[in-house]
C-alpha cells in the first residue's frame, strides 16, 4: 500500500502520559503500557487504531476493564469512550529473534532499540506517528548491570531502573538499552548553568576508544549554544555504541544510539577520515535535540524538515572546526556521487516526497543532502542576518510542535517579507536542474545568459523553473578579480545578467562555492579551466576547474585518446609545487573524479560509458601524473611527514591526506617500495591503511594483509577495513571474485550490517569491478541481497540502489542487471522495503 502526503489527517486522540514497563528476557520480553488518552479537539475522528507488528497481545484494559480488541493488519482497533480514558496492554515480544534491527533487539547480548521511523510498533501497541507527542515514564526490569532509557534517571533498585522524560516526544524517539556496559564519563555546564552528566557507554574493552567522541560531544554542545543559542535540556546525555545497527546513529531523546563505527575511535584503529566522520555524526545527533526532537515532524513526508536542517547545521559545525573550503568540496563530491544519480534516475523523488510504500526507503541523499543544500540556498538568498532571525522565530514559534515544510518556510517569509512560493519547488520537484550559460562581450559590457532545464521524471513529469542563486565573480585577463562574488538570483527559465564598465573581456567564475545543487553546463576550454585553476579566488571553483580538467581528459582517454591533457598535468604540477595551499586542499585537487561520476557525465552527454575503459583511463592518468611530478614527490613526502604525536585535527589530517596522495603516485613509480616501508613503520591506522591500499592497488601486499589480520583480528571495526579494502583495491577483472572469496571467510558475519557493507558495499562502489563484463559482480550482489532480505530488509533495500544507474550502460550490461533485478523481484515473500526499491529501479 502507498501512503500519500495529501491524505494526512490528525489522530483522533492526544496523549497525556505514557508509562512503560519492560520485563526483559531474550526470547520473551513483556512490555506493559499504560497510556492516558483524551479526544483530540482538533478532529472529530474517533477511530481508535493503534499500530502493532509482531506483538503477542496478552491482555488489554480500558479504565481497568478487560477489553478484546480486534487485531487487524498492522495493529488493532477497539471501541473507546468519548471521553478521556486509560488504555493498558501487556504484550510479549522476542528480541532474540529480531534480526531486522528495528524495534527492540539484541546485539552481542545487549538489548537496544531503533524506533525511527516506525519501529516502536514492534515494541507495543501505540499510535506510532510523529505528530502524537507524549511524556514517557519507563521502568526496566532486568539483571543486567546497566539499564537506560530517555530523559532523566529516576529510582533504581538491584534489578530495575526507572526513567522519566519530561519533554513530550513522538514514539520514534523512544530508546532503551540494557547490557553489560562501561561508561566513559564527563560533565558539561550549559550556558545557563545546568550541570549535565555525559556518558559514552561501550562494551568492556572499548574504553580506550571513547575520548574523541566525548570531546566532540562537548564541542558540539558549546557550538550550538554559541551559534544557534540552543541549550541542552536534561540532566544527563547518554550515548551508547552498538555493533549491529542499520544506519549511522539515532538521536533518541537524551539517549543517542550509535553504530560503533560512528563513535568509537583511537589513533591505532581509526583513520583521519573516521575521526572526522565521528565528529560530524556526534554533532549531527546532538543538534537533533532541537532540530528534530524539540521541534519534530508532523508526518514522515516532512523528514527533510529535521534531516536537511540538521545536516546543514552539522556541515556548518565541521566548516568551523576544520577547513570550510575542504568541507564544502567534500560535501559536493558526496552530493554528486550519491544524490545526483538518485535525482537523475529511476529513484528520483522530491526533497519532500509525496508518496511512499516504506518510509525507510526515503532516508536518502535527496532528503538529507539535497535537503541541506536547499537550506544553504535559502540562507544565501535571505542573508546571514535574516537566516539567524528566522531560526530564532522557528524555535520560539514551534518549540514542542510537530511541523511541516510550510511552517519552516513561513518563518522565513515572516522575517523577510519575501514570497517563497517559487522557492518551495525545491521541496516539491525532483530532478537536478541543468544550468546552461552563454556569455557575450560588447563595449565594456559583459553579459551572462542562463537557461535552466530540469529533466522530467516519474515523480515530476512537468518541472517548472526554480529559484537558483548563482554566485558569480569575474577575473580580468591577468588573473585579478575585477568583480567580487555576487549572488545572481535566477527565477526564470532563461535570464541574463549584465556587468558594465569592464576594461576587458573577463573570465567568469560561475556557481562559486557550489551555490546551488545544479549541473552547470558551459562551453568552456581547457585553457580557461587552466586559467581558473591558477587564478580563481574562490577555493571551490578553483578546485572545480582542476576537477573539470581531469574529467575532460579522462573522458577523452576513455574514448581512445592516448595522451593525457597537458593543461591538466601542468596544472597539477603547479598545485603540487604550491606550498601556500592547504595540504588537505591540495590532496583534494589531486584526487580524480569518481569513475561512476564520470560514467554519469558521459551518459548525460549521450555517450555510453565503458567501465573498463574509464578504469584504464584513470590508471593511465595517475601514472602520467606520477611521471610528470616525479621530481617533486620525494620533497613533498618529506614535508608532509608528521613527527609530532598523533592528533586527529585538521592540520595533521591534511598533511597525512596529501602524503597519502603522494604515496599513491610514488607507488606507481617504485612498485610499492615506499608503501611497504610506510606500512612497516606505521604507528597509526591512517598511515597503515593508506600504505596497505597502495600495495594492494599495485598487486602486492599479500604479507601485509596477513600481518594486518594477525594484528587486528580481534577488532571488528578494523577488520571491516580489512574486508573492504581488498574489494575496493581489486582490479576490474578480480573484484567480484575477491568479494566472493571474502564472503566465504569464517569472519564474514553477514548478519552484521557493517561487515555485509564492508564486502558487498565495497563491490558496488568499485565501479570497474562491479560493472565488469560478464556480470559476476551483479550476480554476487543479487545472491546476497536475496539471502539478506528475509533477515534484514532495511539494509537489503538500501543496497539495491547499487543498480539504480543501470540504464546508463550498454545493452549487454542492462540485460545482465535486469535479469538480477527480475530474479530479486520474483522472490516469494520479498520484503516491502526491497520490493518497493526493485520495482522503482525497474520502472521507466
Ligand atoms: N534520524 C537518524 C539520523 O539521521 C537516522 C535514523 C534512520 N533510521 C532508519 N532506520 N530509517 O541521524
Ligand atoms: Zn539526522
Description:
By secondary structure, the chain is α+β, with helices and mostly antiparallel strands. Strands 6-5-9-3-2-12-15-14 form an eight-stranded mixed beta sheet, with no helix packed on it. Helix 2 (272-287) crosses helix 3 (303-321), helix 5 packs across helix 6 (384-398) and helix 17 runs antiparallel to helix 18 (685-697). The longest helix is centred in the last third of the chain and has 21 residues, at 650-670. The radius of gyration is 27 Å and the shape is globular. Zinc ion is lined by residues 284, 288, 307, 310. One of its GO terms (molecular function) is alanyl aminopeptidase activity.
- Percent helix range: 40-55%
Main sheet record: 8 strands, mixed
Q: How large is the share of residues in beta strands?
A: 15-25%
List how many beta strands DSSP finds. Answer: 31
Enumerate the distinct ligands: arginine, zinc ion
Computed structural class:
alpha+beta
What strand line-up does the widest sheet have?
Answer: 6-5-9-3-2-12-15-14
What does the overall shape look like? globular
Q: Which segments are poorly predicted (pLDDT under 50) over 5 or more consecutive residues?
A: none
**Mean of the pLDDT scores?**
98
Number of helices: 27
End-to-end Cα distance, whole Å, is 20 Å
Rg calc: 27 Å
Domain Peptidase M1 membrane alanine aminopeptidase: 212-426
Enzyme class: hydrolase
Family: Belongs to the peptidase M1 family.
Organism: Pukyongiella litopenaei
Amino acid at each position: 500500500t502507498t501512503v500519500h502526503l495529501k491524505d494526512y489527517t490528525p489522530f483522533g486522540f492526544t496523549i497525556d502520559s505514557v508509562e512503560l514497563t519492560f520485563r526483559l528476557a531474550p526470547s520473551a520480553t513483556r512490555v506493559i503500557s499504560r497510556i492516558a488518552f483524551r479526544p483530540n479537539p482538533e478532529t472529530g475522528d474517533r477511530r481508535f487504531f493503534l499500530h502493532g507488528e509482531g506483538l503477542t497481545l496478552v491482555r488489554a484494559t480500558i479504565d481497568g476493564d478487560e477489553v478484546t480488541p480486534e487485531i487487524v493488519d498492522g495493529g488493532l482497533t477497539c471501541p473507546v469512550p468519548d471521553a478521556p480514558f486509560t488504555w493498558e496492554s501487556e504484550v510479549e515480544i522476542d528480541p532474540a529473534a529480531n534480526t531486522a534491527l528495528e524495534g527492540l533487539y539484541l546485539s552481542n547480548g545487549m538489548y537496544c532499540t531503533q524506533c525511527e521511523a516506525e519501529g516502536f510498533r514492534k515494541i507495543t501497541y501505540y499510535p506510532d506517528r510523529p505528530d502524537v507527542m507524549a511524556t514517557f515514564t519507563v521502568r526496566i526490569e532486568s539483571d543486567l548491570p546497566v539499564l537506560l532509557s530517555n530523559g532523566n534517571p529516576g529510582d533504581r533498585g538491584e534489578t530495575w531502573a526507572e526513567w522519566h522524560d519530561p519533554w513530550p516526544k513522538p514514539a520514534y524517539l523512544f530508546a532503551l538499552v540494557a547490557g553489560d556496559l562501561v561508561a566513559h564519563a564527563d560533565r558539561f555546564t550549559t550556558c545557563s548553568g545546568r550541570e549535565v552528566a555525559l556518558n559514552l557507554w561501550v562494551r568492556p574493552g572499548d574504553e580506550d576508544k571513547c575520548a574523541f567522541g566525548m570531546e566532540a560531544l562537548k564541542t558540539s554542545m558549546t557550538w550550538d549554544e554559541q551559534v544557534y543559542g540552543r541549550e541542552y535540556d536534561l540532566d544527563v546525555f547518554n550515548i551508547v555504541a552498538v555493533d549491529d545497527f542499520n544506519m549511522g546513529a539515532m538521536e533518541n531523546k537524551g539517549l543517542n544510539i550509535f553504530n560503533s563505527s560512528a563513535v568509537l575511535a583511537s589513533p591505532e584503529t581509526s583513520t583521519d577520515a573516521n575521526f572526522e566522520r565521528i565528529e560530524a555524526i556526534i554533532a549531527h545527533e546532538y543538534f537533533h535535540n532541537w532540530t528534530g526532537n524539540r521541534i519534530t515532524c508532523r508526518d514522515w513526508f516532512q523528514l527533510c524538515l529535521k534531516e536537511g536542517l540538521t545536516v546543514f547545521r552539522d556541515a556548518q559545525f565541521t566548516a568551523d572546526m576544520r577547513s570550510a573550503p575542504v568541507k564544502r568540496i567534500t560535501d559536493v563530491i558526496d552530493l554528486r556521487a550519491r544524490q545526483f544519480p538518485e535525482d537523475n534516475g529511476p529513484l528520483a523523488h522530491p526533497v519532500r516526497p509525496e508518496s511512499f510504500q516504506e518510509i525507510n526507503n526515503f532516508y536518502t541523499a535527496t532528503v538529507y543532502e539535497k535537503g541541506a543544500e536547499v537550506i544553504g540556498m535559502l540562507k544565501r538568498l535571505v542573508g546571514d542576518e535574516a537566516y539567524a532571525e528566522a531560526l530564532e522565530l522557528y524555535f520560539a514559534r514551534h518549540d514542542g510542535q510537530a511541523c511541516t515544510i510550510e511552517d519552516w518556510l513561513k518563518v522565513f517569509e515572516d522575517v523577510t517579507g519575501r514570497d517563497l512560493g517559487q522557492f518551495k519547488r525545491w521541496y516539491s520537484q525532483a530532478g537536478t536542474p541543468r544550468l546552461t550559460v552563454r556569455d557575450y562581450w560588447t563595449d565594456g559590457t559583459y553579459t551572462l545568459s542562463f537557461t535552466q532545464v530540469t529533466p522530467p521524471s516519474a515523480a515530476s513529469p512537468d518541472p517548472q523553473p526554480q529559484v537558483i542563486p548563482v554566485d558569480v565573480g569575474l577575473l580580468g585577463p591577468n588573473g585579478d578579480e575585477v568583480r567580487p562574488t555576487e549572488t545572481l538570483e535566477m527565477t526564470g527559465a532563461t535570464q541574463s545578467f549584465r556587468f558594465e564598465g569592464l576594461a576587458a573581456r573577463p573570465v567568469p567564475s560561475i556557481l562559486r562555492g557550489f551555490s546551488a545543487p545544479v549541473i552547470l553546463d558551459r562551453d568552456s576550454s581547457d585553457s580557461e579551466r587552466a586559467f581558473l585553476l591558477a587564478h580563481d579566488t574562490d577555493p571551490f571553483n578553483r578546485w572545480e576547474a582542476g576537477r573539470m580538467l581531469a574529467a575532460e581528459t579522462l573522458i577523452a582517454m576513455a574514448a581512445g585518446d592516448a595522451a593525457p591533457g597537458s593543461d591538466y598535468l601542468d596544472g597539477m604540477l603547479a598545485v603540487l609545487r604550491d606550498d601556500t595551499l592547504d595540504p588537505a586542499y591540495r590532496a583534494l585537487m589531486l584526487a580524480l573524479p569518481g569513475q561512476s561520476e564520470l560514467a554519469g557525465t558521459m551518459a548525460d552527454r549521450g555517450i555510453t560509458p565503458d567501465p573498463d575503459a574509464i578504469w584504464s583511463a584513470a590508471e593511465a592518468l595517475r601514472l602520467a601524473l606520477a611521471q610528470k611530478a616525479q621530481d617533486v614527490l620525494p620533497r613533498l613526502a618529506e614535508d608532509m611527514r608528521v613527527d609530532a604525536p598523533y592528533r586527529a585535527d585538521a592540520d595533521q589530517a591534511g598533511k597525512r591526506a596529501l602524503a597519502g596522495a603522494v604515496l599513491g603516485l610514488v607507488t606507481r613509480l617504485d612498485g610499492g617500495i615506499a608503501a611497504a616501508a610506510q606500512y612497516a613503520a606505521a604507528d597509526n591506522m591512517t598511515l597503515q591503511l593508506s600504505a596497505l591500499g597502495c600495495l594492494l592497488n599495485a598487486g602486492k601486499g599479500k604479507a601485509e594483509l596477513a600481518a594486518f589480520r594477525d594484528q587486528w583480528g580481534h577488532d571488528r571495526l578494523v577488520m571491516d577495513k580489512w574486508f573492504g579494502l581488498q574489494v575496493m583495491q581489486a582490479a576490474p577483472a578480480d573484484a567480484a571474485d575477491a568479494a566472493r572469496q571474502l564472503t566465504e571467510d569464517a569472519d564474514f558475519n553477514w548478519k552484521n550490517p557493517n561487515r555485509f557493507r564492508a564486502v558487498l558495499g565495497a563491490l558496488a562502489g568499485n565501479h570497474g569491478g562491479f560493472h565488469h563484463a560478464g556480470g559476476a559482480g551483479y550476480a554476487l550482489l543479487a545472491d546476497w541481497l536475496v539471502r539478506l532480505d528475509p533477515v534484514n530488509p532495511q539494509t537489503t533495500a538500501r543496497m539495491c540502489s547499487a543498480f539504480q544507474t543501470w540504464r546508463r550502460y550498454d545493452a549487454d550490461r542492462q540485460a545482465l542487471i535486469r535479469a538480477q533485478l527480475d530474479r530479486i523481484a520474483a522472490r516469494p515473500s520479498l520484503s516491502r522495503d526491497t520490493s518497493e526499491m526493485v520495482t522503482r529501479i525497474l520502472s521507466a
